Amino acid sequence: MLFDDEKCTGCNNCVEICQVDVFLPGNEKGGSPVVAFPGECWYCGCCVMVCPSEEAITLRHPLINHVHYMPIKDLIAWE
User: How far apart are CA 3 and CA 56, in angstroms?
Assistant: First the structure.
């Protein structure tokens, strides 16, 4: 997950919606939240959906979560 502090509006919607508390409220009122536990992110996309600012939060799924797709005809030919 990537968080761009400069594009953040400080609404803290991400803090409220995150199910695993990746975000913590910022120290200043109306300030950007703190990404405290990025490794705990489930990549559910809730924070991205509630964020009023485009591209303030970007999800980058870890490579281990990417599924390799092989069409069945290629799989049969491979055997």
Answer: 6
Residue 5 tokens, joined: 């502090």
pLDDT along the chain (79 residues), means of 10: 93 96 89 92 94 93 68 75
Say how far apart CA 32 and CA 27 lie, in whole Å.
Answer: 8
pLDDT at 20: 96
Residue ranges with strand state E in the chain: 2-3, 23-24, 34-35, 57-58
Tell me how far CA of residue 75 lies from CA of 64, 65, 66, 68, 69, in angstroms: 21, 21, 18, 12, 10
pTM of whole model > 0.85?
no
Q: Which domains does the chain have, with CATH numbers?
A: 2-78 (3.30.70.20)
